[in-house]
Write a structure and sequence with these properties.
Elements: E1 22-29, E2 32-35, E3 37-39, E4 45-49, H1 53-60, E5 65-69, H2 71-78, E6 85-88
Parallel strand pairs: 4-6
Antiparallel strand pairs: 1-2, 1-5, 3-4
Length: 117
């Protein structure tokens, strides 16, 4: 039997190489949940999954939504987007950058009484 290549071929709870269904971070979208993809240290896109809900919460926080998927199902979702890397139980994650500090405004000086060329 060959590995599933499309989301339709992959059973959501089939046993994959990780041994069981994984906890995959998702975000809400207009058509339902969408798998979240991340960037690795070199800037490449990667899918992430966790072997337990506590592991997901430790890395991404208690408000992160998730769904259960097998590794082959996750790869089938990521593949058409050109994402081939799947990280299971990543230990390090950085929060999304927030707004930076406000930049000081440059003083605005009116040119009064001077010739402009």
């Amino acid at each position: 039997m060959s590995a599933p290549t499309t989301p339709e071929e992959a059973e959501p709870l089939e046993r994959g190489p990780a041994g069981h269904a994984l906890f995959v971070p998702v975000r809400p979208g207009p058509a339902g949940c969408t798998t979240r993809f991340f960037r690795n240290a070199l800037g490449g896109r990667t899918a992430v999954a966790f072997t337990s809900e506590p592991a997901l919460i430790r890395a991404l926080g208690p408000d992160q939504r998730w769904m259960r998927l097998s590794e082959p199902a996750l790869r089938a979702l990521a593949g058409p987007l050109g994402i081939t890397e799947v990280r299971i139980d990543p230990r390090l994650s950085a929060p999304a950058p927030g707004p930076g500090p406000a930049l000081p405004q440059a003083p605005h000086h009116a040119l009064v009484g001077q010739d402009r060329f």
